[in-house]
Amino acid sequence: MRTRMLSCSRTVTLLTAYPFGLPDGQMDRKVRRHLRACPRCASWARSMRAAVAFFGTAPTIEAPASVRRRVEAVLGSTSGSTVARKET
Questions:
Q1: Range of the domain at 9
Q2: Is the dihedral of CA 19, 21, 22, 26 positive or negative?
Q3: What is the Cα–Cα distance from 30 to 10, expressed in whole angstroms?
Q4: Same-domain pairing of 78 and 37
Q5: Rg (CA), the chain
C-alpha cells in the first residue's frame, strides 16, 4: 500500500526538528521522499543544513552582566525562568 506524500508545510515543520533527530524512521522516509519530489522543499532543506552548520561553528561568548540582568528581568516577568550562566 502506498502512503500519501507529506505536504510542504508538514515537511518544513519536520525539517526544523532534524538537527535534534527524528524519532520515527517512517517519518524520516516520508520527509526524504518529499524532498526528492519537491525542489522547493529540497532547496529549503539545503539552506537550513547550511545555516545549522554555520551557526555550529560560531564561538560561544559570555553576555555582559547588564544584558543577562535585562534578559532575566524579562523572562522572570513572563515565565519565572532564569537565564543560565556559563560557569567561569
A1: 1-57
A2: positive
A3: 10
A4: no
A5: 19
